[in-house]
Amino acid sequence: MDFSLIDWADIWQATWETLAMTGFSLLFTILLGLPLGILLFITGKRQLLEQRGIYRALSLVVNVLRSVPFLILLIVMIPVTVLLVGTSLGVLGAIPPLVLGTAPFFARLVENVLREIDRGVVEACQAMGASKRQIIFGALLPEALPGLIAATTVTAIALMSYAAMSGVIGGGGLGDLAIRFGYQRFQTEVMVTTVAVLVVLVQVLQFSGDRLVQHFTRK
Question: Taking Cα atoms as reference points, which of 47, 48, 70, 67 lies closest to residue 59?
């Protein structure tokens, strides 16, 4: 392998595209997945707003979306993606399927994190006359913050993996570069470099997430 033949400008451009896809998709995933996860939790059995019908319906939707392989979701969503953002290619074209593929996953993580909180916290708030809104936003979410940060870290890493996979349909980023040059043009050095960059990015995400969890756990 001759790494001197690599166009590093393409590598940096692809890296920024991957980071952009991951960042914007993570933002929308949190905006959709966090309320959905909270709703799953509070409508569950023996919770604040127990509604078995609503919980089962939401749980079914989440499970169905989570069971669809992301590569298939990418292809199936092409017409919807074009309708939403005007294109199915590049960074913009990758964001809708990335969000739809990870928001249910994040919602389930949020539900599980909230379930880990001691019921005594809720009971103490109810004994003091706190409203359901106050219990959720004043007690449950602050108590669950370290777990929510850990869940966000896991989701961000999954998004980065999915963002690379979106290169199969021209989604841009490191995955697209690896396919077009590393695979189709047999430039092994490009393939190795893109994998190495992805590994470094994942390590940075994991390290940053772990540090934030430790910081807020101490508080």
Answer: 67
